[in-house]
Amino acid sequence: MRNWMLTIGVVFLALNTMQSQSVIGKWKTIDDETGEVKSVVEIYEKSGKVYGKVVEILRASHKKDLCTKCDGAEKNKPILGMIIINGLKKDDDEYNGGTILDPTNGKKYKCYITLESADKLKLRGYVGVALMGRTQYWTRVKN
Q1: pLDDT for position 10
Q2: I need a labelling partner for 41 at 20 to 30 A (CA). Which of 1, 123, 130, 141 fits?
Q3: Which of 91, 93, 86, 92 is nearest to 110 (CA)?
């Protein structure tokens, strides 16, 4: 019986550790210029690619904002519920090959994301080459 309980404990710990070492989950977005926490983005996997959806807007005055500067299907759509990270693929410790939408200016950028630690995500958006861009660090939302 004691061995059984130990086995269950080890399995639970392993599953919990694996989840915390993944980009999948909810992340607080932090503005790289102001340091302000702006929203919560849920990063998820679908058909082998990674996406990010705005699931909460933390600034009360922006909860009902629309993406007025966006083009195409996103034009004038609510930012809450919008998919802003599209089509990233895992490449070793990095996810890349997709785009990120900045709802404040309506522009799409190439991007990559990596885990800095279990609870810190590095996100780099850029035009052309990765040297020409901005980096943000997001923090994992604790359950």
Answers
A1: 39
A2: 130
A3: 86
Does any domain span residue 16?
no
Residue 28's domain comprises: 23-140
CB count, 10 Å around CB of 13? 10
Residue written as token pair 């500067």: 69
pLDDT digits (tens, 9 = 90+) for 35-78: 899 999 999 999 999 999 999 999 999 999 999 999 999 999 99
Write the CATH number for 46. 2.40.128.520
Pull the structure tokens for residue 29.
Answer: 């977005």
pLDDT at 9 over 50: no
In a domain, 91, yes or no: yes
DSSP secondary structure string for all residues of 20-69:
HTSS-EEEEEE-TTT--EEEEEEEEEETTEEEEEEEEE-SGGGTT-B-TT
- Domain count for the chain, please give it: 1
Cβ-based neighbours of 89, under 8 Å, separated by 6 or more: 48, 49, 50, 95, 96, 97, 98
11 in a structural domain: no
pLDDT of residue 2: 58
